[in-house]
């Protein structure tokens, strides 16, 4: 059973070399975004399955998807060989229930998208969905593009802190995180885990080893610091 404690996830993998580099750098979870709403996939489903098969046991692959039908989600998870799925779209309670019944072995992370001032709605969703998910991930909505993920933008961390405090399930923080701000974000929000995508990329859009290693070091230091706080 996953507890997502001190999870350090990086999303968006281009190839095996990139995946192995991130595993060696200490990333605990690698997100494979497939069947997306706005952005293009980095690699095909067949290529993703091949990369996942090469991962060391210390690195857990996660399917990140906007799929909303339980059957399609389970099918894709089995093709890829993942045990965790991050649902980033608007899945209904009925489909979530079906997912849990049909694939109880899958751990489910569900997104809570911060759109300005919608904390009341997010608190209600978190309380309603908690029995059907293993963790929540807060992320940022981009008004300009309509994207709910991989925006490179931070949101109001007070909202994520509120959700981390009141959610019955662990909260993972995403949205605009990088080596420069992940420590502060962890200390302010007190999440179980963190996720980054664009913040650890270089100008060529590839994951930058220096930035990945700095992100992991900063996140680990902040999680250690959190333990010492009252
Ligand atoms: O949501 C997407 O379209 C997406 C596309 C590619 C990779 C990840 C995606 N979403 C979910 C995530 O977990 C991202 O890592 C998260 O949105 C953080 O992205 P960033 O703000 O760029 O660090």
Automatic annotation (TrEMBL):
Organism domain of life: Bacteria
GO biological process per UniProt: L-tryptophan biosynthetic process
Residue ranges of every copy of the N-(5'phosphoribosyl) anthranilate isomerase (PRAI) domain listed in the record: 10-217
GO MF annotation, one: phosphoribosylanthranilate isomerase activity
Catalytic activity of the protein: N-(5-phospho-beta-D-ribosyl)anthranilate = 1-(2-carboxyphenylamino)-1-deoxy-D-ribulose 5-phosphate
EC number: 5.3.1.24
Matches recorded under InterPro entries: Aldolase_TIM, PRAI_dom, RibuloseP-bd_barrel, TrpF_fam
Record's keyword terms, sorted: Amino-acid biosynthesis, Aromatic amino acid biosynthesis, Isomerase, Tryptophan biosynthesis
Coiled-coil parts of chain: none
Biological or metabolic pathway of the protein: Amino-acid biosynthesis; L-tryptophan biosynthesis; L-tryptophan from chorismate: step 3/5
Pfam families, alphabetized: PRAI
Family stated for the protein in its record: Belongs to the TrpF family.
PANTHER family the record matches: N-(5'-PHOSPHORIBOSYL)ANTHRANILATE ISOMERASE
Stated name of the protein: N-(5'-phosphoribosyl)anthranilate isomerase
